[in-house]
Amino acid sequence: MAKLGGSGNPSIQQIRLFLLLAEELHFGRAAARAFMAQPTFSRHIKSLERDLGVALVDRTSRRVALSAAGEALQARMRAVVHAMQELRREADAQAGSGRIVIGSFEAITSLPPIPAILDELRRRLPQLEVQVLRTGFDATEAVSRGDVDAAFLFLPVPNGIRALPLDSGPRCAAMPADDPLAAEGPLALADLADREHIGWSDRVPKVYQDFWAVDPRPGGRPARYSPHAMGDFESGLQLIAMGGGLLFPPTVGRELYPRPGVSYVDVTDLEPWTSALAWLPANHDKPFVAALRKAARAVLSRTCG
Fold it and tell me: Which positions, given as ranges, span the membrane (predicted)?
């Protein structure tokens, strides 16, 4: 274990940044997730290593890997971040004010009834700071890690996460505009049997992958996947435009994500999407999560009743 002779006290920010790096194992991607320039991000990691007195990361020109110390301290750092979050939440709840961090899968917060739910929450708790954090396909992972208190996302979710369904709607095929089938629609899944679906990041839950890729297809045939993996929906659209495969997103993607080289084609036998509010069982009774749930149910009762 490399020792650097440190004696400083690391900050919570430094610890959070290291945990991002531990997930990505890539300074550029981790810096992007932190909305930070890569040189600044690297300086924070080096400062943390000096403060702790150990090298946390093994760096080469080709790869980044956690050192033995980094592996050993990672779980302890997650516990520190979680404890600080709990302290802040409890103090805010006692004071009757504070902040709730809500994850938003891509642009889902533009879909009804989510804007009305956020407005209702702010009306009920005007002193509450509501922070909406945009996520990608790792939305459920953000909930599980405690990066967000709750999240608006699309079902399904893996076991261990609770969800309140909000709305549903049709899906379509997002495919290369020069695909011969792009001009034909509406299509059936059988028409697309030989088309490859864009690949998934390893962080995306299997239950989510299977639903959105329709895997297996009707009749039990496994879906075919391209060798290209997407980190988020935007990168998926870029791959589609380059002829790298297709996706089966909500039909509303036509309006939210128009892109050159991408055609949205109706597919008659796709299961509809369902949006939901999701949270961890451990957060169920936390004041602001409970308030968000109540706001959601109030809006649903008005719109559905």
Answer: none
